[in-house]
Design brief:
This protein has one helix and three strands, in the order H-E-E-E. The chain is an alpha+beta fold. Strands 1-2-3 form a three-stranded antiparallel β-sheet, with helices on one face. A hairpin with a 4-residue loop joins strand 2 and strand 3. The longest helix has 14 residues.
């Protein structure tokens, strides 16, 4: 991003996938194939390359090439994640909330098919 001496890299999390690495790579490939960056405005050539940890999309424009890297990564820590309750002392019991059954509810979705309103929003059984 940027121009000249002020160019810098930006990173964005595009999705969270729970499941095996192969499923995450398949979803990432689907997103990389359909990704349409702002630049170049008039692409001349588009190449999608597979790497060990993801994909690299190279789009040639009239004057220069633009690269977007799509990487699968395992989340190890999130400073904004909900905190887990403290473990119970020996002999104490902790009430456990039972999760409601996950029911696909129709609702608005963005162009990638991701629900506008997250499924967890409004649930009272989550910490």
């Amino acid at each position: 991003m940027g121009a000249g001496e002020r160019k810098h890299t930006e990173a964005h999390v595009v999705a969270h996938i729970t499941g095996p690495r192969e499923e995450a790579l398949a979803e990432l490939e689907r997103r990389a194939r359909s990704y349409s960056p702002e630049h170049p405005r008039s692409p001349k050539r588009r190449r999608l390359l597979r790497q060990s940890d993801g994909f690299r999309l190279v789009i040639d424009g009239a004057w220069q090439s633009f690269v977007t890297r799509f990487t699968v990564a395992e989340l190890l820590q999130d400073s904004d994640a909900p905190t887990a309750p403290e473990p119970a002392a020996e002999g104490q019991t902790v009430p456990v909330a039972r999760p409601t059954e996950a029911v696909e509810q129709p609702g608005e979705r963005d162009t990638d098919g991701v629900p506008i309103k997250p499924a967890w929003l409004g649930r009272d059984d989550l910490p």
